[in-house]
Structure to design on (266 residues):
């Protein structure tokens, strides 16, 4: 809409925006699904980098592992792992909705909280397995 | 009374001219990515601490190479569908939307091409 300078003194009525509402947990999972999706899109670059490092010999592979082992690398990896866990679990929730399950208001709130808790637990469990030496079973 | 022409009704494509194609493809790729993501997570956890030779050997096995290729292609397609929704939702200036759509699709193609090239060097005849 074009600005109208003659009407500038009187504030125009506005429709309520997200900042007005009390945030229900379903709103949090909804926007987090989108954010984790964008995070995973950035994560595909890391996947390409890892595959390229594997293809390019031990030197580039070890350079990649050294970067991944730094504190910043571990934080980024944890965020990617948690994003995948959240997007996967919440995606299953969306597919269930599409088939008509769990879409009532109380159910949607309960399974929102479940997905948030399970995604954090899943990501933490994967990191705990890796750090306690229970990973690496394919080497 | 409907103002729709009989042809428009029978096509069932609505005002978007593509019907439910985008919605349906996003759901189908999502369903395919559930088992593939679990396979991917189990595989990466199994390769924690592995040397280059062990990782190369794992990805060279035909089943693993095929599953990795399927995961890459379907995940990047799902990613492009999802980013298209985000651009459609928030960008309403036509030239900006066109620019971001082309950029997003270029990024998606570049990522999947780079991943498949690396995978061919790992598991295929290219060295």
């Amino acid at each position: 809409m074009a600005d109208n300078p003659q009407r500038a003194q009187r504030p125009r009525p506005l429709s309520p925006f997200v900042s007005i509402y009390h945030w229900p947990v379903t709103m949090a999972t909804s926007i987090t699904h989108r954010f984790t999706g964008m995070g995973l899109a950035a994560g595909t670059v890391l996947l390409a980098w890892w595959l390229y490092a594997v293809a390019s010999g031990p030197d580039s592979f070890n350079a990649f592992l050294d970067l991944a082992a730094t504190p910043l690398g571990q934080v980024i990896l944890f965020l990617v792992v948690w994003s995948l866990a959240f997007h996967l679990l919440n995606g299953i929730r969306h597919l269930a909705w599409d088939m008509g399950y769990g879409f009532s208001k109380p159910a949607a709130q309960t399974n929102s909280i479940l997905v948030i808790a399970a995604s954090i637990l899943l990501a933490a469990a994967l990191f705990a397995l890796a750090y306690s030496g229970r990973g690496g079973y394919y080497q | 009374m409907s103002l729709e022409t009989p042809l428009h009704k029978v096509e069932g494509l609505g005002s978007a001219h593509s019907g439910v194609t985008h919605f349906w493809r996003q759901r189908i790729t999502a369903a395919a990515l559930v088992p593939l993501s679990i396979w991917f997570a189990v595989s990466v956890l199994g390769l924690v601490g592995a040397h280059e030779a062990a990782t190369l050997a794992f990805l060279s096995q035909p089943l693993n190479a095929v599953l990795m290729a399927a995961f890459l292609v379907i995940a990047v397609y799902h990613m492009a569908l999802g980013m298209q929704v985000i651009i459609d939702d928030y960008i309403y200036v036509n030239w900006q939307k066109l620019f971001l759509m082309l950029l997003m699709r270029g990024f998606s193609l570049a990522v999947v091409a780079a991943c498949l090239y690396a995978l061919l060097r790992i598991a295929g005849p290219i060295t």
About this structure: Chain A has a mean pLDDT of 92. Chain A touches chain B through 35 residues (CB under 8 Å).
